[in-house]
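Board notes (copied after class):
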Amino acid sequence: MKCRALWGLLALAWMGLIFWLSAQPDLPHAPEPWLDVVVKKTGHAALYGVLAWLYWGFLRGDGPPSGRARLLAFGLAVLYAVTDEVHQSFVPGRTPSPWDVVIDGVGAALAVRLRG
């Protein structure tokens, strides 16, 4: 049970990090516009990949891997991505994008698929 609580706390902390990043009106930029897009979109996928992985660890607990836990972890990560974009709509200088949710979903899907 302790392990499950740790997974849950790590997921909450990671959600807090994502929320904090989304609350920033302006994030640092790469020197070239194309590179800025690549870095930021890769970051989106990575952040939500880690989040899905943490959700999956929490949902799985001490049990064996299950398809249901993977699917739920993926769904929760995408749901949080949607709420994150809504949050960004209230932050000056930030613009919500459905494409970011798609990219976040790709990162989450890869994480739960590769997790083993």
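Comment from the instructor: The mean pLDDT is 92. The chain has one domain: 2-24+36-114.
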